[in-house]
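Illustration 12: Chromate efflux transporter.
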Amino acid sequence: MNQQLKDKSRLAILLEILFTSTKLGLTSFGGPVAHLAYFKDEYVDRRKWLTDKTYADLIALCQFLPGPASSQVGISIGMLRGGILGGVISFLGFTLPSVIVLIIFALLYQTFTLGDAGFIHSLKVVAAAVVLHALIGLGKKLTPDKSRLAIAIGAALIMLLYPSAWVQILIIIAAGLLGWKLFKDKAESKIEPFHVSISKKTGVASLSVLIGTLILLPILNNTFNSSLLNIFDIFFRVGSLVFGGGHVVLPMIERELVPQGLLSADEFLAGYGMAQAVPGPLFTFSSYLGTMMEGVTGAVVATVAIFLPSFLLIVAALPFLSELRKRAAFQGILMGVNASVVGILLAAFYDPVIKSSILDGSDFALAVILFALLNVWKVPAWLIVIIGVAGGYVLQLLGF
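Figure caption equivalent — predicted structure in token form:
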């Protein structure tokens, strides 16, 4: 009888997690910062699942990890509430609404040859405005001094001269080493401890799976001629190495897909623009890309692959992060890595964003208006998409 009550109670908890996270997945527009505000209102203020302090600790944890920070916070809350299964359910509820919309958009794009539609080009102009807005915001936060600004500029120059996915990874590693050397003295000394029930043994096992998969996937991909395996390899690697949030996924994935001919630059940017219009994490851009390459099956593979490292990293980091965050060397490494992220995004802003979206004066004028609405008037990104598409049609009707 007691076991039955426990099972019912656990089922009720899991259903509650599913309901709450799905509601957030349907309504959380505005990007990762806005997502965190929605989470606090729902999980902390309304449902009291965790305290303000614990929530702040979770945010700090996820800022220190590669991957989508808001998704990782949601996964972490699900794990604290309902164990690892609770984390999975929390992720599904928050992510599936935007996954479904982007898959449908990709299928329509292919079926009705939407590449020639006027609104597709408008979406690319929207992408230019959004990336510039993200770039300025990241720059202010992650390159506040001359040393980190120099790292960002150096990273941008190298990426523009040698545009490849492997060069990008080498830049991140080199920036981390520079950060360890240069920024140890700038580390914060007062950091709140983080307490979690996951054992260090489980954490080590999770990290081992992550590292082993990163090593094994390229070997398997080179051995077997499988398009789905290739997709999993690409997106798993990107999900493991993207620092700085959703917008930084743009250059990481673009270097893996467009130069290899898996997608055209136009197809890539159209999906990125559409991804701004849906709620939930920007990493669901992978669902669109997977659909464009291998249909719905490709979407599932790409989505699982890009988010799986987040699960493994959270389980691996939770038992150790409280100690690591106190170490000056660790903080210094992350300062360097985050600075290089700004440079990588700056290079991507030129190629492919500007090169593929700003073709004439009217495109530039529309992009400036959209950027001003984002940066000055704080119009949400999903509304910017609507305004951008409408503005594109107006310009077309006026003969521009």
